[in-house]
Amino acid sequence: MKPEITVIVPIYNVERYIRKCLDSLLAQTFANFEVWAVDDGSPDNSTEIVLEYAAKDQRIKSILKENGGYGSVLQDSIDRLESKYFLICDPDDWLARDALEKLYNFAEEKQLDLAVADKYNVYEEDGEEEYVKSIPSWMQSIKADTVYTAPEDVQKFSLFEVTPHAKLYKTSIAKGIVFPQKVSYTDFVLYMLALSKTKRIAYDQEALAYYLKNRPGNTATDVRPSVIKDYLTGFDAILKQLPQEQADRNQVLYYRLFIQLRYICKQYAKVSKDPFKDEYIKLIYQGAASLQPYRQEIYQVTMENTTKSSRIFQHGLLTPVTSHWFVKKIIKKFM
């Protein structure tokens, strides 16, 4: 029987965590799925552990490839997918026992291209679980269990948590996406570009995934200055793949890229070792310049949390003659 869902598990240096991930998958109440455990050139014993599990259950497939980063795993996997749906489960995370069943039934009953649910953040030192809603606390216009089809409403989901946790994608909306290689944060590329093709989406307000928030080596604990380049590489990949002739339709996605640029400025304030003198500030300036042709589309978007001051920063950042000054002002605010 052809699997209905493929669970993609990108693997790199996770031998300490992979068993819990695979155990959670094999314990699923939904049976018609397969696991692609993709070893991205990992130097540890992760694959040996995967092979141990594959010998016990034929739904687990061990796939080996040369190291190319998270984006290369997504690229190779999505290009070859034949299942109707897929879900990404990072190898240091795990799923609720009924996660696949609930997401699958939710998507099938509502004929969704994308189903989004909540997650728990889990902290390694004490195992504390923190319920995290995918939807922003200020957003009242999107309701749980409601199907959204208008582009503006669909794209409001870009303001949700962008990580892959508890998101079930219809495979067809991810085909054709080109992912950057050798960088992190490419799950943002997947989510944004999939939304640009989504016709039907809904939010299931229950936590179905567990995210190990603060383990050493994951992206949440990454303080390298070069993460700024990773962020902007993903930013650029999205901007280049959004069809220019559909700019009016994708206004909210361009607005979300503006929000991402502001976030990158905030992160720069945290990680830069030589503020305003290193190579990364120039990349931020370039990112702002690349978004400026879409400023009219961005100006058309008003969210529930939009304020007069945020509008001032928006206009300043997206106006060529003032852009650098506003970039610096945002960064200084977080230093």
By CATH, the topology of the largest domain is Spore Coat Polysaccharide Biosynthesis Protein SpsA, Chain A
CATH superfamily of the largest domain: Spore Coat Polysaccharide Biosynthesis Protein SpsA, Chain A
Please state roughly what percent of the residues sit in beta strands, choosing from under 5%, 5-15%, 15-25%, 25-35%, 35-45% or over 45%: 15-25%
Any idea of the CATH class of the largest domain? Alpha Beta
User: Which percent bin holds the helix content?
Assistant: 25-40%
Query: Structural class, judged by helices and strands?
Result: alpha/beta
**Which CATH architecture of the largest domain is right?**
Alpha-Beta Complex
- The overall strand count is 9
DSSP helix count?
Answer: 12
The radius of gyration computed from the alpha-carbon positions, rounded to a whole number of angstroms, is: 20 Å
What is the string of helix and strand elements?
A: EHEHEHEEHEEHEHEHHHHHH
Polypeptide structure, described:
With 335 residues, the protein is α/β, with parallel strands linked by helices. 40% of the residues lie in helices and 17% in strands. The chain folds into 2 domains: 5-219, Alpha-Beta Complex (Spore Coat Polysaccharide Biosynthesis Protein SpsA, Chain A), CATH 3.90.550.10; 223-333. It is globular and about 65 Å long. The N and C termini lie far apart (56 Å). This is Glycosyltransferase family 2 protein. Keywords: Transferase.
Name a few traits of the molecule.
9 strands; 9-stranded mixed sheet; 12 helices; 335 residues; 17% strand; Spore Coat Polysaccharide Biosynthesis Protein SpsA, Chain A; alpha/beta
